[in-house]
């Protein structure tokens, strides 16, 4: 499934190309709020980070979590509560959200890694549904209403986040930090052991690795990063609701990753951008979004399982032999 | 009025009955999932949508064609089974031999399509479906009043579960099915048409879900989203029971349904999560599930 990063590391020419492309992308991201609606961009950045966090698990450990909404939406609740009710500063609120998601990841991950493959997916789905029921009944989440009117406040007490551009650059900084963290994890010795587990779990065990601990570690990191995205989203949109903890959201993040390319570094970002843009575009039309998401799912699974970025990388991998 | 642990007995029996009814649906649905998974190695996420389609088929047949409950009990599963056969032939079949996660993702996408489309056409609100005239009213059992339709649902689901179990364990077709589950290549070498067997199995599983949907229509209202929340609970049931055994799936379904009903009496706040909590405990104590075997 995953060929992206190792492949880039082996190809010096592609490596320079990707650095250039990365620079261009960064410049575009810095300039973007002057051309597009900042809320729309921030929403893409939050979901892109969420999808990358999810991809850390499916792409590099081979675990399909069907419950990542619990971490994303759970962190949104934690952050919103800390900022609105306790009056915390926004960045520490976001970090609390990420920490809370990591704690939930520890519990859910501990239970879920006891089974493999398809069971893992069903267990994460069931446990996240349980969390959604708890959110529906717990007093601090305010049930169907959610937590509304979360103040954006001042970053570190200085920068006013009610300025759209200030909020945008904070979101961008968090997104880049998350992406860098994932890149470091994937390319560390730890990340290589994760890939070994993905390729052949039994062999990794026979080599003496305590596979369960590695899986749990990856699960908690993925949950924390998903929480970072969810907490940020709560500050950007100024609310936290049940929508973000429900199974439909877990399905959406799977779709973003699948569409962009499972196990590629930038695939989930592309996927998130496309899905959010599509939802935004369809919001004003009569066509039911759920149906379209389902159709994209079916097409992806049947026709291009590597995703958009994965297929492009595969195409480039086949081609340079002749041209180089 | 007599009480048990401070709870009036009629309330207790009432909740046990509701638990038995929920358990009937858990049992029928997890049975279908287990049959499909056993042979196709696919977790059928569309199962909830197929249950919903069964209920909607009954509703539409009644509203637009005037076809009543009893013929619908046969027609709706046939219709949904036919749709499922088309899905298996043209989509699922391409994914055999790949990572089973793709089967899960494909059926998830299909579930979204069905639910989204029905929600678009019929709205999210539930539609009432009256039980047939022969099954209205209530029966005095001496210790409680039981609505006849609810008794019928429990009896019918027991009959369906038992029938499916007999079909798989005692007939020649069932023997082929079990043999193909163990080793499909070998069975094919003996001249059994395994691809056809796979198609029929998926159709049968979907038809079971649709039958459960028709039975459910008069109890819960017919709504596009009736299957999606149910299927997640059924997944938990399947994790608890383990998918290795048909009988295990059935027993776990009923037992968890009754336990959920009892929770509603003694600690109502926890009733919506009790099955998930049980799942977590089972995972800690016996990760392979109560009736499962380690793979």
TrEMBL record, chain A:
Annotated compartments = Cell membrane
Kindly give the InterPro entries that the UniProt entry links to this protein: ABC_transp_permease (IPR001851), LivM-like (IPR043428)
Q: Which domain of life is it from?
A: Bacteria
Recorded GO molecular functions are: branched-chain amino acid transmembrane transporter activity
Identify the GO cellular component terms for this protein: plasma membrane
Stored CDD domains? TM_PBP1_LivM_like
Primary localization: membrane
Q: Which residues cross the membrane?
A: 20-50, 57-79, 91-111, 118-140, 166-186, 216-241, 253-277, 289-308
Q: What is this protein called?
A: Branched-chain amino acid ABC transporter permease
Keywords, in A-Z order: Cell membrane, Membrane, Transmembrane, Transmembrane helix
Concerning Pfam families, the annotation shows: BPD_transp_2
Membrane topology (UniProt)? Multi-pass membrane protein
Q: Which PANTHER family match?
A: ABC TRANSPORTER ATP-BINDING PROTEIN (PTHR30482:SF17), HIGH-AFFINITY BRANCHED-CHAIN AMINO ACID TRANSPORT SYSTEM PERMEASE (PTHR30482)
TrEMBL record, chain B:
Superkingdom assignment: Bacteria
Q: How does it sit in the membrane?
A: Multi-pass membrane protein
**A GO molecular-function annotation:** transmembrane transporter activity
Please state where this protein is localized: Cell membrane
Q: Which UniProt keywords apply?
A: Amino-acid transport, Cell membrane, Membrane, Transmembrane, Transmembrane helix, Transport
Q: Where are the transmembrane segments?
A: 12-39, 51-67, 73-92, 101-122, 149-168, 200-220, 232-259, 265-285
**Short name of one Pfam family for this protein?**
BPD_transp_2
From the UniProt record, give one GO term of the biological process aspect: amino acid transport
Output a single Gene Ontology CC term carried by this record: plasma membrane
Please report which protein family the annotation says this sequence is part of: Belongs to the binding-protein-dependent transport system permease family. LivHM subfamily.
Per its UniProt record, what PANTHER family does this chain match?
ABC TRANSPORTER ATP-BINDING PROTEIN, BRANCHED-CHAIN AMINO ACID TRANSPORT SYSTEM PERMEASE PROTEIN LIVH
Name under which the protein is recorded: Branched-chain amino acid ABC transporter permease
Tell me which species this is from.
Answer: Microvirga makkahensis
